[in-house]
Design a protein that fits this description.
about 260 residues; alpha/beta; Rossmann fold; five-stranded parallel beta sheet; five-stranded mixed beta sheet; about 15% strand; globular; ABC_Transporter_SBP; signal; Vit_B12_bind_prot
């Protein structure tokens, strides 16, 4: 099998000792019923709530303790192109087979979950999750048909000021909500933005991650734009795992809040 970067994955047996370096995918593995197989996670793997007390923390998403990972004797390591560096992937390859995900839209999410179902022998759970997400997505889109198109700027970082561009999973979810991204560049990822762009949006969304924006930051942005400023839960917009099942209810409440 190939991972989502086209790298060949060779597994002798079904993995029983998994290290996951991607918070959203750690939650996904648990929801697929694989918690007992997880032996190592990052310090940012905060869902489920008590998981980090039960597993070995092997570092973060950008910096790991390779010796801790090696000591766990994993037989499978799960990484992500955006979350983890190439150096981390190379280091992990010296320890165990590494699958690198690259999820930028729903199709790549479905494909990834299907791969997990095959590699980790949890096909029924994986298929059930994909079906559930597809159904929720279809239902949500039907509800959004009559909603007006709103121009939004989704801010992810404060200094420098950065926003989610067009080639991101965040942008896909913004479009699902009926929003139009104020970032015009088609191939943009996370560009820096200025106050002029803030003025062009109908709404400025301040994400709770990676920068921890909160209500206290709203007044600061209100001095730069007449757009409505809202704080949003970044996990629902950027966690491409089983959290998607909860995301659509959150999106519906958010759109209702904008009326």
């Amino acid at each position: 099998m190939l991972d989502q970067l086209g790298r060949e994955i060779n597994l002798k047996n079904t993995p029983k000792r998994i290290v996951c370096l991607v918070p959203s995918l750690t939650e996904l593995l648990v929801d697929l019923g694989l918690s007992d197989w997880l032996v190592g996670v990052t310090k940012f793997c905060i869902h489920p709530e008590n998981l980090r007390k039960q597993k070995t923390i092997v570092g973060g998403t950008k910096s790991i303790h390779a010796d801790r990972i090696a000591a766990l004797k994993p037989d499978f390591i799960l990484c992500n192109k955006e979350e983890n560096t190439q150096e981390i992937v190379v280091a992990c390859e010296q320890i165990a087979p590494v699958y690198v995900s690259d999820i930028n839209d729903f199709d790549s999410f479905y494909s990834f979950v299907d791969d997990l179902g095959t590699l980790l022998r949890c096909k029924p759970q994986a298929e059930a999750l994909v079906t559930a997400v597809k159904n929720r997505l279809e239902q949500f889109r039907a509800k959004m048909v009559s909603e007006p198109v709103r121009s939004v700027l989704y801010i992810i970082w404060k200094d420098p000021l950065m926003a989610a561009g067009r080639v991101t999973f965040i942008n896909v979810l913004l479009e699902v909500c009926g929003f139009r991204n104020s970032i015009a560049e088609e191939h943009s990822r996370y560009p820096e933005v200025d106050s002029e762009l803030l003025k062009k949006a109908d709404y400025v969304l301040l994400s709770s991650e990676p920068f921890p924006f909160s209500e206290k930051h709203i007044a600061e942005f209100e001095t730069q734009t007449e757009a409505q400023i809202l704080c949003v839960d970044g996990e629902y917009f950027s966690w491409y795992g089983s959290r998607l099942l909860k995301a659509f209810d959150y999106f519906q409440d958010l759109v209702f809040q904008m009326k």
